[in-house]
C-alpha cells in the first residue's frame, strides 16, 4: 500500500537565518500508483460520493495541512 | 451545446469574513493553472484528440466551468460586504479601483488572464500538459488550504482538490488508451 505523503529532511546549516522547519513534505496521491482503474472497484453511495468528491473510495486521497503538526514541533524546539 | 443546472456542483459555505482569502482564491479563477484556463484548454483540445478520448476532454472541460462557478461564489461571498477600506487592507485596493466589487479573471498577483493556453494538436503532448495542469491545480488548492483558517472553505477546497486527483487519473488512463495497439494486424 502506497503512502500519499512523503517526507525528507534537507540540510540545515548552523548559519541559517531562521529556525529550521523540517522535515519537508510533499504529496504523492493515489493517481500516481493506480494505473488504469480496474473494473469492479468499491463505490461510495451517491451522498457519500458528493461529500468525498469522488465515487470511488480507492481514489479518495484527502489532504491535511502538513504544517499543523510541524509548527508544534518547531515551537517546542525553539 | 450545454444545459445549465442552477445549482453549484458542491455547496460553498464561507464561515470567516476574511476578504484576504478572496485575493488568494482568485488565483484559481483567472490564474494560469486556474479553472478558466483548464476549461478553455480542454474544450479547445478536444477537436484534435482521437475520438476515443474526445468525450473525456468534453466532460472534464465542462466540469471545470462548474468549479469556476464555485470559486466565483467564494470570492463574491468574501468581498460583497467588504468596505473599500477593508478591500484595501486585504490587498484588493487595485482590484477595487479597476473593477469595483466585480470579480475578474486575473491571478492572485493581479495579472490579467492572458489566454496562454497550451494546445499542440499532438494527443500525447496535450494529455501530458493536462495531467501536469491537474497536478498544479491540486497543489494550488493545497497551498490555499494551508493558509486558510476557515473550515467551511477548506471543505469546499478539499472537494475541488479531490476532483483534480480524479481528473489526473482519467487523463492518465486516456494516455494508456492511446498507447494501446489498435487493430494490429498479426503477421505470422
UniProtKB/TrEMBL annotation, chain A:
Organism: Sporolactobacillus kofuensis
Higher taxonomy: Bacteria, Bacillati, Bacillota, Bacilli, Bacillales
Pfam family, one: CotJA
UniProt superkingdom: Bacteria
Record's protein name: Spore coat associated protein CotJA
TrEMBL record, chain B:
Protein's recorded name: Manganese catalase family protein
One Pfam assignment: Mn_catalase
Lineage: Bacteria, Bacillati, Bacillota, Bacilli, Bacillales
Matches recorded under CDD domains: Mn_catalase
UniProt cross-references to InterPro entries, sorted A to Z: Ferritin-like, Ferritin-like_SF, Mn_catalase, Mn_catalase_dom
Family: Belongs to the manganese catalase family.
